[in-house]
Amino acid sequence: MNKSDLIDAIAADAGITKAAAKAALESFLGNVEGTLKKGGRVSLVGFGSWSVSKRAARDGRNPQTGKTIKIAAKNVVKFKAGADLEGSVNK
Protein backbone atom coordinates (compact mmCIF):
# COMPACT_ATOMS: atom_id res chain seq x y z
CA MET A 1 0.00 0.00 0.00
CA ASN A 2 1.39 3.39 -0.95
CA LYS A 3 0.39 6.86 0.24
CA SER A 4 -2.26 7.30 -2.47
CA ASP A 5 -3.84 3.94 -1.62
CA LEU A 6 -3.86 4.87 2.06
CA ILE A 7 -5.59 8.19 1.33
CA ASP A 8 -8.24 6.35 -0.71
CA ALA A 9 -8.79 3.84 2.11
CA ILE A 10 -9.05 6.56 4.78
CA ALA A 11 -11.56 8.49 2.66
CA ALA A 12 -13.69 5.37 2.08
CA ASP A 13 -13.59 4.20 5.71
CA ALA A 14 -14.32 7.62 7.22
CA GLY A 15 -16.84 8.69 4.57
CA ILE A 16 -14.92 11.87 3.79
CA THR A 17 -13.45 13.34 0.63
CA LYS A 18 -10.01 12.34 -0.61
CA ALA A 19 -8.87 15.94 -0.07
CA ALA A 20 -9.90 15.80 3.60
CA ALA A 21 -8.26 12.40 4.02
CA LYS A 22 -5.04 13.71 2.44
CA ALA A 23 -5.07 16.75 4.74
CA ALA A 24 -5.57 14.52 7.78
CA LEU A 25 -2.76 12.16 6.76
CA GLU A 26 -0.39 15.07 6.00
CA SER A 27 -1.20 16.58 9.39
CA PHE A 28 -0.50 13.29 11.15
CA LEU A 29 2.81 12.77 9.35
CA GLY A 30 3.87 16.38 9.95
CA ASN A 31 3.13 16.17 13.66
CA VAL A 32 4.99 12.87 14.03
CA GLU A 33 7.99 14.32 12.17
CA GLY A 34 7.94 17.52 14.23
CA THR A 35 7.81 15.64 17.51
CA LEU A 36 10.67 13.34 16.49
CA LYS A 37 12.79 16.31 15.33
CA LYS A 38 12.45 17.77 18.84
CA GLY A 39 13.68 14.48 20.30
CA GLY A 40 10.23 13.45 21.50
CA ARG A 41 8.37 10.18 21.24
CA VAL A 42 5.04 9.39 19.57
CA SER A 43 3.02 6.55 21.06
CA LEU A 44 -0.28 5.15 19.79
CA VAL A 45 -1.51 2.60 22.33
CA GLY A 46 -1.99 -0.79 20.69
CA PHE A 47 -0.42 0.29 17.40
CA GLY A 48 3.14 1.22 18.33
CA SER A 49 5.57 3.99 19.09
CA TRP A 50 8.20 5.99 17.22
CA SER A 51 11.32 7.33 18.89
CA VAL A 52 14.71 8.75 17.95
CA SER A 53 17.92 6.97 18.87
CA LYS A 54 21.48 8.20 18.48
CA ARG A 55 23.85 5.99 16.50
CA ALA A 56 27.50 6.54 17.41
CA ALA A 57 30.25 7.11 14.85
CA ARG A 58 32.01 3.93 13.87
CA ASP A 59 34.51 2.39 11.50
CA GLY A 60 33.26 0.43 8.51
CA ARG A 61 34.67 -1.25 5.45
CA ASN A 62 34.25 -0.44 1.78
CA PRO A 63 33.00 -3.78 0.41
CA GLN A 64 34.71 -3.24 -2.96
CA THR A 65 38.17 -2.33 -1.73
CA GLY A 66 38.19 -3.59 1.85
CA LYS A 67 39.50 -0.18 2.93
CA THR A 68 38.46 1.14 6.37
CA ILE A 69 36.13 4.16 6.28
CA LYS A 70 34.64 6.40 8.94
CA ILE A 71 30.85 6.31 9.30
CA ALA A 72 29.50 9.48 10.90
CA ALA A 73 27.21 9.55 13.93
CA LYS A 74 23.54 10.14 13.19
CA ASN A 75 20.06 10.01 14.61
CA VAL A 76 17.81 7.15 13.50
CA VAL A 77 14.04 6.72 13.81
CA LYS A 78 12.89 3.54 15.51
CA PHE A 79 9.42 2.01 15.48
CA LYS A 80 8.29 -0.55 18.02
CA ALA A 81 5.03 -2.29 17.22
CA GLY A 82 2.38 -2.46 19.92
CA ALA A 83 0.91 -5.68 21.28
CA ASP A 84 -2.35 -5.36 19.33
CA LEU A 85 -0.55 -4.83 16.02
CA GLU A 86 1.86 -7.69 16.64
CA GLY A 87 -1.04 -9.94 17.63
CA SER A 88 -3.04 -9.17 14.50
CA VAL A 89 -0.05 -9.79 12.22
CA ASN A 90 0.86 -13.09 13.88
CA LYS A 91 -2.60 -14.73 13.73
UniProtKB/TrEMBL annotation:
Biological process, per Gene Ontology: chromosome condensation
SMART domains: BHL
SUPFAM superfamilies xref list: IHF-like DNA-binding proteins
Pfam families assigned to the protein according to its UniProt record, in alphabetical order: Bac_DNA_binding (PF00216)
CDD domains: HU (cd13831)
Keywords: DNA condensation, DNA-binding
Top-rank lineage group of the source organism: Bacteria
Any GO molecular function: DNA binding
UniProt entry tagged with the keyword Methyltransferase: no
Gene Ontology CC annotations of this record: cytosol
Family that this chain belongs to: Belongs to the bacterial histone-like protein family.
The protein, known as: HU family DNA-binding protein
Species this chain originates from: Flavobacterium amnicola
